[in-house]
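Phosphatidylinositol 4-phosphate 5-kinase-like protein 1 isoform X1 (Pantherophis guttatus), 495 aa
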Amino acid sequence: MASTLQLKLSCPPSAMQSSISYRRPHRTWSAIQRMLGRVRQQWKLLGFFEINEQHEYFKFTCMLKEGLKASIQKTIDEPVSMESQKPSDFQRVLKQMHEVIPSSVLLQGYEMRTYAAPVFARFRQYLGMMDTDFQKSLTCESSYLQFISNSKSKADFFLTFDKRYFLKTQRKREIRFLLTNLSKYLDHLERYPHSILVKFLGVYSIIAPQEKKRYFIIMQSVFYPHEKINERYDIKGCQVGRWTEPTVDSSEVIVVFKDCDFGGKVITINQEQTWLLQQVKLDTQFLKALHVIDYSLLVGLQPLHDDDQFLDNTLGNILARTRLSLSCEYPRRNIPRVSSNTSSSSSSSYEHILRLYPDYLSPYLRPDRPPEQLIRSEGFMRNVVTPFLMQNSYEDMSCIVGSALHSSIPSDLTNESFAAQHRRMLPASKNPLHTIDGPDYRYYVGIIDLFTVFTFRKKLECLWKSIRYRGQQFSTVEPSYYAQRLCQWVESHTI
């Protein structure tokens, strides 16, 4: 033992250093691997993973981009008319072959199919979207992002780099269900243009050599823009399995919580509560008629700062919001757009407001000056908006402006017909149809996952769960009860 110890001590320093330097790279590499593992895990928890050349879906997303670019270009070159829709448009299939894609990916060619292309082109136009912007977002050079989901459907989720649109793979039967009920879906959104149902913007498929045919849909992201959202919830109105483990490693991790995590929180939206309750009832009744269950209500919370609240209550913003909400920015397909140069209705609106508040508004309101220009004037903000808000409530001003601009909407959207539209004051945001402003928070709301039909198999699953989870609330129930339960959740969690 002594000789062994002497042998170790007698080793020259250079040999010991060599031994140490030989072991250090191994320890360093292990540390790097652990660090990369933590980074990768954090990306997964954040929910977004960049699809670069090393990613398994890089080839597929390259095909998506090239195919979508050509498909949308077709609608750009041959724009559709809002008044010329035909029943045959719902059955149309556009087939396009693609041979050349980025040289870093070796392919023999593939076929992209676009389903009901004229119908979805009109719907995007109906939503006020430009196909050039739609194409740019979907086909930009930046990589798609993979969305890591805890969904049981095993579908693949992709997100455009600007996080505005979702691309989701779907089963063939789900695509068939959507296309079969597409006319009903669009009719519902036309009747209730401020519906919170997710907006489907296109249905496609890709056929590549030696690969299975893949279907996918494009839809708007309810949580857009997402940067300031600090809480996200996926609500089904039940308790079984409806909770999420909170993360402890990083405060920046994005987690989508569930029903049981919501706890005693409430959604405070004041005058918008009645609208939201009614709209959720209308949307769930529509899904009940299609025998759909297992859909989710997404809820995102974004704190409103003092400057956001002030701007939200300014007269110029109220004018813009009222015009957006009431002046047919989202027109029915069979109703022509209101001409923007109707000076008579504009004059009557100005005269109405001017008659109510001549001292404040006379220096700024003129028939030849669109309301949108008001907010650009620093003098208007300083001399009109601030004093006005000191003496008048936001609700009073909204009512005044709304009545003043009501004359600009089409005659067949007034009175009972307009009430059936069930509209509201839309916030001046990038995603107005899915956002509701309360006194302290901006809430992002939307109903997603509309493809689960209450079939015989689901009835058996309901029976089995009623035995296993006796006395508890679970997701697989018949459509009318599912709709009623979600409405009850919204009613009990909003004020």
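The first helix runs from residue 2 to 9. Residues 1-25, 39-45, 327-350, 400-415 have pLDDT under 50 and may be disordered. ok done for today
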